[in-house]
Amino acid sequence: MSNAYKAAWQASIDNPQGFWLEAAKALDWAQAPASGWSEADGWFPGGQINTCHNAVDRHVAAGRGDAKALIYDSPVTGTVQTFTYAELLEEVGRVAAMLAALGVTKGDRVVIYMPMIPQTVFAMLACARLGAIHSVVFGGFAPLELAKRIDDAAPKVLMAASCGIEGQRTIAYKPMVDEALKLAKHAVDHAVLFQREQVTAPLCAPRDLDWMALREQTAQAPVPACVPVAASDPLYILYTSGTTGTPKGVVRDNGGHATALTWSMANIYGIGAGDVFWAASDVGWVVGHSYIVYAPLLAGATTVLFEGKPVGTPDPGTFWRTIDRHGVKAFFTAPTAIRAVRKEDPDATFLTETGTGPCQAIFLAGERADPDTIAWLEEKSGLPVIDHWWQTELGWPAIATCFALGDLRRKRGSAGFPVPGYAFTILGDDGKPVPDGESGSVAIKAPLPPGAFRTLWNNPKGYAKNFEGFPGYYETGDAGHFDADGFLNIMGRTDDIINVAGHRLSTGQMEQIVAQEDGVAECAVIGADDAIKGMIPVAFVVARAGAETDETLVKRVVSAVREELGPVAALKTVYAVPQLPKTRSGKILRNLLRKIVNGRPYDTPATIEDASVPATLHGIVHG
Ligand code: COA
Ligand code: AMP
User: Fold this and answer.
1) First to last CA, the chain
2) How far apart are CA 44 and CA 38, in angstroms?
3) What is the pLDDT of residue 623?
4) Atom of ligand 2 nearest to the CA of 497
5) Last-in-domain residue among 377, 400, 418
6) Domain match, 268 and 397 both
7) Is residue 130 domain-resident?
8) Per-residue pLDDT averaged across 352-363, rounded?
9) Average pLDDT, stretch 390-406?
10) Cα of 222 to ligand 1 centre, how many Å?
11) Which residues belong to any copy of the Acetyl-coenzyme A synthetase N-terminal domain (predicted)?
């Protein structure tokens, strides 16, 4: 075992305040924090900080203005564009001036519905600069989901682009923005639209403003100064799937976030100033927020913003070429992406041909990394492949192998060890710790370390719920166990959340949508195993008597989920069935459905209402 890892973890548990106050010294504070933690104010009470200053300005001030900050690599548009720290400062400053001209100030919200283009990064950092709170909404969500987020965050301004590019397809965003603004009860003052050359969207005055025109109009305005905010003030709200149809607005603070991310770059990923880091995710997810935008820039490193897919843009060699072209030192992606690459290039011909340049390690997260995928990637790349685990709520890895602390221990199928700052316990249903080797609810002792959420936007009760199941602990919603060697294995969720291609979705929310569809008497949505996406949702619907043909109903259900939740839901399989298996008390046996769909053996429980139902379903599903 790495002594450095062990010492760091122990120090973070024995003296969390000292440990994190020391880590916080890596940042510029407008006012240094008075102490490490207080129950009332969270991490770094009394501290005043600006995240944009730390991610951008201070590197320029330190004479690193010519160092590369951002590389935009877009195989879908054939563009590679580099921004130095000085150029990034200029761009962020211009967007901050635009927002300031629209009256955006500290504490105001700005919703950002944009693809993987540099302007999205500028917009996020510009908000941080002004002390405003951004909320980025992933482009794969439908207008109704965008509207829900607009209503909850009540932004002054919405920033959008005219289109996203998904593989070979161009997806117009403006019609979705218009629809969302129509559906939302909250009215934004302005929608600022960045017109990409692929699509020019019509603007609706006076609400809509053209990004570049606004930039022109404010060109003479001075770059707004970085506004110091309290360490506990929100930097962003990121909505994620909960167990209901209402998304959870995870609130990220400034001080704890900047401290934890900076620590993680040096101690988990081994990235410092001048290194190149690439997280192949999307800025709409937490991985994108933390490891495309904030962490690499806080560390003074170079981040790669990749607008493409692992396959098809144009081929499964794109990851390796991008790593090689930019000299990526550490690469982060989702297991799904590797499975997709492997499917198209099983012998890793592209990888063998291109190599992996100076890359030292590949990190995986977002869903469980199956041992077979890790084995393939390690064998073909010759690099350590490190699975690590975290959640939107936590903001940065909580279980990992701390590679940069000299730890290389890995066990395929395990996410690694508790990261410094995190004290994990596996709890049984009675709330008591279970022995090693036994599965239970994965819980983290409160208080959570810096970076982790301390509330949900407009929903403190929803936040408190995470700590109610097991008093004194944060309930992660995952099930897992420690093995005899101290590795933590995450086995799946304890709730109705599923991970589809690394995207977190609620089957409960899909059920709500399906249930509302005309002609549906009852339904169930479950996660089925999928060779590429890890999981995919599958719906079972029982038609109301006299409803139209099953085929029409199935089509309507598929399109309802796509239209209301978005294409990212990837619900493509719907079975119209005569009945659902239920207990005598009427509870739908989703576990049984899951086994049937996955072709696993099952016993018909004695409590089931009609023992012939599973057999019928089995016939339908596999027939
Ligand atoms: N804007 C608009 N639509 C989007 C979108 C976006 N930003 N992202 C995804 N979609 C759409 C896709 O076009 C697709 O629509 P379709 O049903 O019309 O084809 C649907 O949402 C599902 O997308 P996706 O999950 O990306 O599936 P895919 O089949 O297009 O690609 C993979 C499969 C494996 C290549 C892809 O899922 C992938 O790259 N996964 C890695 C995920 C990842 O990095 N997750 C971050 C967690 S760390
Ligand atoms: P998200 O909030 O979208 O990051 O999703 C978090 C959830 O994804 C976790 O609660 C897990 O269920 C799952 N997850 C993320 N990373 C891993 C991993 N490395 N291994 C297993 N599950 C993971």
Assistant:
1) 51
2) 8
3) 65
4) 12
5) 418
6) yes
7) yes
8) 97
9) 97
10) 39
11) 5-55
